[in-house]
Design brief:
It contains two helices and four strands, in the order E-H-E-E-H-E. It is α+β, with helices and mostly antiparallel strands and 94 residues long.
Length: 94
């Protein structure tokens, strides 16, 4: 299985239709999130696909999308009821 890396995906989209499409796309790849910021464990192929799909939605000059790689060397700390993500036996995108 390809190695997944942790990314933080965030967007700021000014138009309601594009905002909805971006949210739908990110829900396909994320393991959790709040409002416009999501945690995504992605393979290299999934990363390329996500960036490609978001490029079709984003209006350059009006909207912003960030996909930031996070280092996994440090111990994960959670507050509240958060749980450390685990690699599932399979990953369904549909």
């Amino acid at each position: 299985m390809s190695q997944r890396k942790l990314y933080l995906a965030a967007y700021d989209i000014s138009e309601a239709g594009r905002l909805r499409r971006a949210l739908d796309i990110l829900r396909d790849y994320s393991t959790g999130g709040q409002k416009s910021v999501f945690e995504c464990f992605l393979t290299a192929a999934e990363r390329r696909e996500l960036l490609s799909r978001m490029a079709e939605v984003i209006e350059e000059g009006e909207d912003r999308f960030f996909l930031i790689p996070l280092l996994q060397k440090a111990k994960t700390r959670t507050l509240g009821i958060g749980m450390k993500p685990a690699e599932p036996r399979f990953f369904y995108l549909g």
